[in-house]
Design a protein that fits this description.
Blueprint: H1 2-8, H2 12-31, E1 35-49, E2 52-66, E3 72-75, E4 82-84, E5 87-98, E6 101-112, E7 117-137, E8 144-153, E9 156-157, E10 160-162, E11 165-175, E12 187-193, E13 199-202, E14 207-215, E15 219-237, E16 240-241, E17 243-264, E18 274-278, H3 298-335
Antiparallel strand pairs: 1-2, 1-7, 3-5, 4-5, 5-6, 6-17, 7-15, 7-18, 8-14, 8-17, 9-17, 10-17, 11-12, 11-15, 12-13, 15-16
């Protein structure tokens, strides 16, 4: 379109500039990654002793691009322990993302060892993907479809604390077609423990139902971002020496559950003759299967069943034959008794 406009432009100088811009735009579009996965983290550490305070902020990220579903972003940084102003902070995290599977986990512990000291440790981990799906259908009337899908979420929170201290954990989810969380906004679960018995327990749902619309025959951008958060804080004062620990364990546990239905966005009628491809090469029509946990094809499964049946039949024949042989030997022995 830009090139056609440039050729029709009356000014030669502006025509040249517009053609150059159009070619540059095409080059950028060609070089842009069709599929991208990422993982990132941020930490915030506070230690204080009396009037002295020290803050630390650490962060990191990794991004993988490509056109194959095997592209993966793996993040396993080493968080060196912090021990200053009489406070010990220890933590770790792990995150990964690939087409159809996301995971993040973190843990942290705060121990104020000196009297009049305070410590706080926050870790935020994000993983996600950017992809594109293209739907096709043999139905000429289906030009725009409404796609329903599921995500499976499995994991848990394990905060603990001793007074005076507190710990909180949470998970958040945003993306294409993802509905608001059951607890408002993008919040999909949390467990927090505070002073004086305060407890907030909102478990994460094991399955999430999403929905989006797509134009048949055109790439539809799809993105997902999964975030885990953990925070612990504790004080050592005249009330006692508190400690706090958080564990957010959602590693390798957010997975694509497959497409459950495709309907005409205008009429609401089911579209049966449809197929989907993606820039990543991942088959979004089906649920994610962990590499190495291959599911046999129906023909392969039938052959396995037949082979097992054959082996079982052969073993029964051997057992029956052995029984006849034993009976014959016993009869022969009885003749000499």
């Amino acid at each position: 379109m830009l090139i056609r406009m440039a050729l029709a432009w009356p000014s030669p100088g502006r025509r040249f500039a517009l053609i150059t811009f159009a070619l540059a735009a095409l080059a950028v579009a060609h070089d842009a990654p069709a599929f991208q996965v990422f993982a990132s983290y941020e930490t915030f550490e506070v230690t204080s002793f009396g009037i002295f305070r020290s803050d630390t902020h650490r962060s990191g990220s990794v991004t993988a691009t490509g056109d194959q579903a095997s592209a993966m972003a793996l993040l396993q940084p080493t968080l060196d322990p912090i021990d200053r102003l009489g406070v010990s902070l220890v933590g770790s995290l792990d995150a990964h993302a690939q087409a159809g599977s996301w995971g993040a986990g973190a843990d942290g512990t705060v121990t104020p060892n000196a009297f009049a000291s305070f410590g706080r440790f926050d870790i935020t981990v994000r993983t996600g993907i950017s992809d594109a799906m293209t739907f096709t259908s043999t139905d000429p009337n289906a030009t725009r479809v409404r796609v329903s899908y599921t995500l499976d979420l499995h994991g848990g929170f394990q905060p603990s604390r001793s007074f005076p201290g507190g710990a909180s954990t949470a998970v958040f989810l945003t993306g294409t077609g993802i509905p608001p969380g059951p607890y408002g906004g993008s919040l999909y679960g949390q467990l927090a423990l505070g002073d004086f018995g305060l407890r907030i327990d909102q478990p994460a749902p094991p399955r999430i139902n999403g929905q989006f619309e797509a134009v048949v025959g055109a790439p539809t951008p799809v993105s997902m971002t999964f975030t885990t958060f953990g925070s612990a804080s504790a004080t050592n004062d005249d009330r006692g020496a508190g400690t706090a620990t958080f564990i957010v364990d959602f590693q390798r546990t957010l997975t694509w559950g497959g497409i459950t239905s495709v309907v005409d966005a205008v009429t609401g009628l089911p579209v049966t003759n449809w197929s989907v491809t993606s820039d990543s090469g991942f088959n979004y029509a089906n649920a994610f299967v962990e590499p190495g946990a291959a599911v046999p094809e129906p023909q392969t499964g039938a052959l396995i069943v037949l082979a097992l049946a054959t082996l079982g039949f052969a073993r029964l024949r051997r057992l029956a034959s052995g029984s006849r042989e034993r009976r014959g030997l016993m009869a022969l022995a009885n003749r000499f008794v």
